[in-house]
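Need residues for this backbone.
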């Protein structure tokens, strides 16, 4: 018998284990014997399923020939998978993904004998499903596979990668005819004008640099499905999904709160089923549009892409979801009430942004297009991430001091951007850096006149 101290120790340890969802993998089946034409037989598999990944096999005695219909039903008796008609031999299918996000339990496979004469018998049925989506109060840690349910826990997973997958689409405006076309991230180039969340009359802004780009490295992404990416192709609960958002765990997306207000961007790894993602509103519409997260999965793709835009946002997928072009750089923000991480990174990148957008072809090509390390990360961006990691390892006071010093260094460039206006990158076609130097020179002259004018009117010695 377990001693009291040992029992207490185990009980204490259990309190600190991460809470996970109960495994819902199920398998069902049986045999069909003496089923008359027109009669049905159902086999039940019990379990909770927010999004089911189903596989099945139906076998017939080789010496027999039968015609039958096969259907899948949910626990409410609703048909959720097309009927399959088979006359002889074995048939199998799956894995097929379907569900309605409500976590309904039980799944039934129905066999209906369709012989013109004679009973259906000598048939064996086997099927099963795994749950591939988390309940609204849980975070995804790993996807379903084989006979394993999705790993869902009460705490979010620690981010492990950055960027978008090459299959995620953006909206690119062609220069010649201003036609907007969807372009996969893997085909995006520096200089392409992409749709952003800017409130300006023209929300299309140029990609001025890739912070990170590697076309071959295998990378794990989150696949985020929303109500906007799921359409009902069949009655009731069958899924027919367009391309989801594929994004790294620490890349940030914009969320709409339950009260309708847009919050600052949050890391994708913190998303749960039921969260609302901000969508780009159509021109002329003031009301916010949002798409609800219905399922999150993991997927591995070849390549990674992190394009940067002047305003720090980019609109992705056919559903026009609004994402940040930035990632989480520190785990403990130094100024949570004064400066959001995305705003902080935006200020830090302002010198690089000004150089890329106003520096002319030579500087743009040298600094912004062809200046990446062996891992595909832009050298100055990599240096900035190292600085952020160093800052994150220090105390609160040191972090705050380092942020203030970095803002003092980079802040003037951000002020210059604001002074030049929201479309200042258009100056690059009419002078670029020389125009910038002219603006700085005029500013210096004006500053000299306003601060040193009274000294110039004073009489020098010997002139009295």
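Answer:
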């Amino acid at each position: 018998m377990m001693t009291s101290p040992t029992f207490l120790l185990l009980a204490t340890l259990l309190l600190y284990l991460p809470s996970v969802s109960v495994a819902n993998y199920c398998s069902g089946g049986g045999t069909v014997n003496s089923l008359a034409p027109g009669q049905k037989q159902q086999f039940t598999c019990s379990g909770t399923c927010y999004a089911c990944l189903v596989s099945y096999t139906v076998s017939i005695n080789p010496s027999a020939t039968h015609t039958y219909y096969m259907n899948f039903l949910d626990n409410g008796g609703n048909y959720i998978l097309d009927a399959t008609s088979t006359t002889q031999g074995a048939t199998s299918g799956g894995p097929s993904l379907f569900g309605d996000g409500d976590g309904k339990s039980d799944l039934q496979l129905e066999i209906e004998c369709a012989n013109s004469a004679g009973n259906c018998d000598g048939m064996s049925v086997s099927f099963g499903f795994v749950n591939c989506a988390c309940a609204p109060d849980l975070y995804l840690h790993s996807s379903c596979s084989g006979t394993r349910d999705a790993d869902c826990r009460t705490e979010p997973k620690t981010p492990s990668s950055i960027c978008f997958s090459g299959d995620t689409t953006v909206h690119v405006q062609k220069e010649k005819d201003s036609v907007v076309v969807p372009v996969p991230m893997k085909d995006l180039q520096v200089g392409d004008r992409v749709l952003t969340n800017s409130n300006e009359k023209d929300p299309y802004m140029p990609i001025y640099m890739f912070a990170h780009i590697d076309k071959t490295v295998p990378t794990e992404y989150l696949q985020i499905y929303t109500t906007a990416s799921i359409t009902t192709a069949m009655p009731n609960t069958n899924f027919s999904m367009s391309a989801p958002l594929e994004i790294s765990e620490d890349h940030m997306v914009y969320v709409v709160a339950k009260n309708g207000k847009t919050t600052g961007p949050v890391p994708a790894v913190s998303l749960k089923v039921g969260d609302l993602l901000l969508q780009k509103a159509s021109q002329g519409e003031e009301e916010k549009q949002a798409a609800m997260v219905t399922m999150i999965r993991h997927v591995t793709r070849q390549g990674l892409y992190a394009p940067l835009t002047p305003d720090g946002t980019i609109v992705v997928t056919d559903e026009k979801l609004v994402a940040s072009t930035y990632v989480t750089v520190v785990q403990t923000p130094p100024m949570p009430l004064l400066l959001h991480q995305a705003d902080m990174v935006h200020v830090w990148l302002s010198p690089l942004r000004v150089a890329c957008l106003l520096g002319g072809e030579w500087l743009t090509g040298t600094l912004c297009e062809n200046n990446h390390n062996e891992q595909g990360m832009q050298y100055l961006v990599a240096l900035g991430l190292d600085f952020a990691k160093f800052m994150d390892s220090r105390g609160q006071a040191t972090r705050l001091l380092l942020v203030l010093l970095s803002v003092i260094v980079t802040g003037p460039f951000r002020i210059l951007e604001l002074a030049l206006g929201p479309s200042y990158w258009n100056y690059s076609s009419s002078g670029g850096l020389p125009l910038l130097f002219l603006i700085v020179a005029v500013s210096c002259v004006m500053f000299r006149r306003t601060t040193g004018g009274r000294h110039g009117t004073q009489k020098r010695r010997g002139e009295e």
